[in-house]
Design brief:
By secondary structure, this protein is of the alpha/beta class. It contains 9 helices and 13 strands.
Length: about 325
């Protein structure tokens, strides 16, 4: 059986891990994602492909598995995926992102970077004995919008810090050990008004795109911080920039953006707005989940599914089953 890998479409460490652990029943063909003719030829006899993106594509008459190397499927046009192919995804990012959320909440509350910068200038007077006083997250309310795998891990850690956790998601559910109840999205406005920190955890689709718009941001406390490790388009870019610039909310932590480098590039502004000029935002380059643990876990899921496909066994992490 043949696995097709687009070289420019998949990250190097994960690709290397899959190649090193691929079941013996598989052979690999690497193609340049920027060479459409080579890609079309490779798809003709491919049984599986690893890719986060699938829109208009050449015919793939033998394709049985489109495996996403990540969790989100917002770049997949399911109508363009051959009906013979099952679409599966991979997780392994929950703990990494949850620790990122906790670290950035603590940084926004304590201001360790500012203290460090001051003392490097031999400046004690801004903090030592006389202030300014910093806060702590104990007793604060954390609101999680989209209570999935990431939300649960964030809630687990927040509770250990003595925080009050509230959540809403697309489907209401009862209590667990971290939240008293998960409301459906009718509880969104109340959460935005109540939370000291808002964590964005929804998947991106037509119902969630731009959910955090000017109206939603206006509901937040003037001291509240919004944290987005999910997808950039969930937040209205201009509305967030204006809310931060005008200090109508306390701050933001943004790991996901509206603009990314072009294929093969590594630089470029993450937004059409100058967020980098603001002092109430932490900006990171879509790196909150990027750990070796994530790579190893995703590699294990992908190689297991390839093994299952070769044996004719049911696949795991199915996003959309094959129609034929």
């Amino acid at each position: 059986m043949k696995l097709l890998i687009k070289q420019a479409d998949n990250n190097g460490p994960l690709q290397q891990c899959v190649r090193a652990n691929l079941p013996a029943t598989w052979r690999i063909e690497l193609v340049d994602a920027d060479d459409p003719q080579a890609f079309a030829r490779g798809l003709q006899d491919a049984d599986a492909i690893i890719s986060m993106d699938w829109r208009a594509a050449p015919p793939a008459p033998r394709l049985k598995l489109l495996h996403l190397p990540g969790a989100g499927w917002d770049a997949i046009d399911f109508a363009a995926v051959p009906p013979t192919a099952t679409v599966c995804n991979a997780y392994g990012h929950e703990v990494s992102i949850a620790e990122y959320v906790m670290a950035t909440m603590l940084e926004m509350t304590l201001g360790v970077r500012r203290m460090d910068a001051a003392l490097r200038r031999n400046n004690w007077s801004g903090w030592w004995r006389i202030g300014p006083l910093h806060d702590y997250v104990f007793g604060k309310t954390l609101g999680i919008v989209g209570y999935g795998r990431i939300g649960v891990e964030v809630a687990r850690r927040a509770r250990a810090f003595g925080m009050n956790v509230i959540a809403c998601s697309r489907t209401a559910r009862g209590a667990d050990e971290f939240v008293a109840r998960v409301e459906d999205m009718s509880g969104f406005d109340a959460l935005m008004r109540t939370a000291d920190f808002v964590v964005v955890g929804l998947p991106l689709d037509d119902t969630s795109r731009g959910l955090f718009d000017a109206r939603a941001l206006a509901l937040m406390k003037p001291t509240a911080v919004i944290i987005n490790p999910s997808r950039g388009a969930l937040i209205d870019e201009e509305a967030l920039y204006l809310a931060l610039r005008e200090k109508r909310i306390g701050g933001a932590v943004i790991d996901v953006w509206h603009q990314y480098p072009q294929p093969g590039g590594s630089d470029g502004a993450p937004s059409r707005f100058p967020f980098h000029e603001l002092d109430n935002i932490i900006m990171t380059p879509h790196a909150s989940a990027w750990t070796m643990h994530q790579i190893q876990q995703r590699c294990a899921v992908i190689t297991e599914n390839l093994d299952r496909l070769a044996r004719g066994d049911p696949l795991i992490n199915v996003v959309r089953a094959a129609a034929l």
